[in-house]
Amino acid sequence: MVFKGKVIGMNSNVFQLPSERKKKSQFDDTLEALKIYALKEHSKDIACLETLFSDLELPVISKAIKPEVVIQTDEQGNLFSTAPDQVDLDLYDKALGKYDPKCERLNDTLRTLFNVAWAQLSDLLRNEIQQ
Amino acid sequence: MSPGPNSATYYEMKYNNKVRKTDDVAMLLKLIKEATHDIGQKVNEYDKVDEIQRQLLRTAKCQKTIMRHA
User: Fold this and answer.
1) What is the spatial distance between Cα B2 and Cα A65, in angstroms, rounded to a whole number?
2) Mind telling me how many Å the CA of B34 is from chain A's nearest CA?
3) Is residue B9 within 8 angstroms of chain A, CB to CB?
4) Domain tally for chain A?
5) Is the pLDDT of residue A111 over 70?
6) Count of helix runs (H) and strand runs (E) in chain A
7) Is the pLDDT of residue B26 over 70?
8) Residue A13 counted as domain residue
9) Does any domain span residue A9?
10) Given this model, what pLDDT does residue B14 score?
């Protein structure tokens, strides 16, 4: 019986040991299928997931940078400060409010993708990884 | 509710003599890549050795031919 994995959305793309697989490009093909799965099921996180699929690194959401008071010097050499623009401050507040939910959603997505990838592993490959 | 010991998110990965409890998908993909590319790399190395042996054999045959005609 041909191993097709357990996730229907992966269209029978699986990870197998070289001795089991038929196509040499199986890893890249299944990674591509996982990317398409993420695009369909977790489209809101897809921009953050680029590093996962290109470099196999965990994505990190960077925090918004708070607009600071800018201290400058005028033509006579006197120091003066410029308060941050109110629009920038509003945008910062909005970004800060979205940060935690964004992180939580990304964590859920990563956990789902882990389980999907795990479900597409052949038993032999699972043993190999766990050894 | 915490995941059970048999669930995918809580399994123990032994790799490089270290036990890893992980749900890190990036780490899992790296391990899969290493496990699935390992033998392929070895085959490539064997291919290189074969190629060197073939070249040496060819050189030896050429030398033999040269010696015969000398």
Assistant:
1) 34
2) 9
3) yes
4) 1
5) yes
6) 4, 2
7) yes
8) no
9) no
10) 46
Partner A contacted by B28 (CB < 8 A):
yes
Q: Which candidate, B20, B42, B43, places its Cα nearest to that of B31?
A: B20
Give the chain A residue whose CA is nearest to the CA of B25. A114
> Which is nearest to A99 in space by CA: A53, A66, A73, A129?
A66
pLDDT, position A57: 92
State whether residue B20 sits within 8 Å of chain A by CB.
no
Q: Residue A78: its pLDDT value, please?
A: 87
B3 close contact with A: CB closer than 8 A: no
> Rounded to an integer, what distance in angstroms lies between the CA atom of residue A34 and that of residue A11?
10
Task: Provide the shortest C-alpha distance from residue A22 to chain B (in Å).
Answer: 12
A-chain residue closest to B22, CA distance: A114
Domain contains B1: no
Query: Which of A54, A59, A51 lies closest to A105 in space, CA to CA?
Result: A59
Cβ neighbors of A38 (< 8 A, separation 6 or more) are A45, A46, A49, A53, A109, A113
Residue in chain A nearest B40 by alpha carbon: A18
Domain interval for residue A53:
22-130
Question: Which stretch of DSSP H or E encloses residue B21?
Answer: strand B18-21
Residues A65/A52, Cβ–Cβ less than 8 Å: no
**In chain A, pLDDT over 70 holds for what percent of residues?**
99
